[in-house]
Amino acid sequence: MGANFRAGLKIGGFEKNNDPIYQQGVRQPDVIYAIASPWISGSVTGKAYAAVDFLGMKRIEKGVKGRLNLINMSTEGHIEGGITYKPGAASLLNTNENPYQYYTKLKWTGSAKGGDGDISLYCDVKLFNVWNIFSRSTKVISWKPIYETQKTFYERSHYF
Q: How wide is the angle at C-alpha 35 spanned by C-alphas 29 and 38, nearest 5°?
């Protein structure tokens, strides 16, 4: 059984496929964003086998192994800021009003799933109990997650 935990931060910016926005002759990035995404997971593995050892020279092992994913939970925080055109910006081009607006966006989501797994048969032949000279495995059965849920806890955009 094991658990993993990872947290990270992605920061970047990109340009959309639209007409670029220039301020005082300088191209403005459309979006700048940061994402943090921690997650935790736990799974169980098991193995049952029979082995025959030929005087330490060769070992044949045959058996069944299985895996069950108990839980995989993650959450993601996304913050974004940028510049975009106002709705109806084409009609504002002939006026003195700016056709663009700035915005910020904050979003927090989470997900959980688990119960997926598989059972397989295998055969390994090792020479001097070190080198695998033959290894085969076949999956007898596998199944998708028993439960899976996703939720948006908070999402808000502000235009100014």
A: 170
Tokens of 69: 């994913």
Q: What is the pTM of this model?
A: 0.61
Residue of 47, 26, 97, 40 whose CA lies nearest to 70: 40
Cβ atoms of 75 and 38 within 8 Å: the answer is yes
Do 76 and 108 meet the contact criterion of CB atoms below 8 Å apart?
yes
Residues 80-103 have pLDDT tens digits of 888 777 776 666 666 677 777 888
- Cα dihedral sign for 39, 40, 46, 51? positive
Q: Reply yes or no on whether the pLDDT at 5 is more than 60.
A: no
Name the β-bridge partners of 127.
Answer: 58, 131
Are the CB atoms for 22 and 99 separated by under 8 Å? no
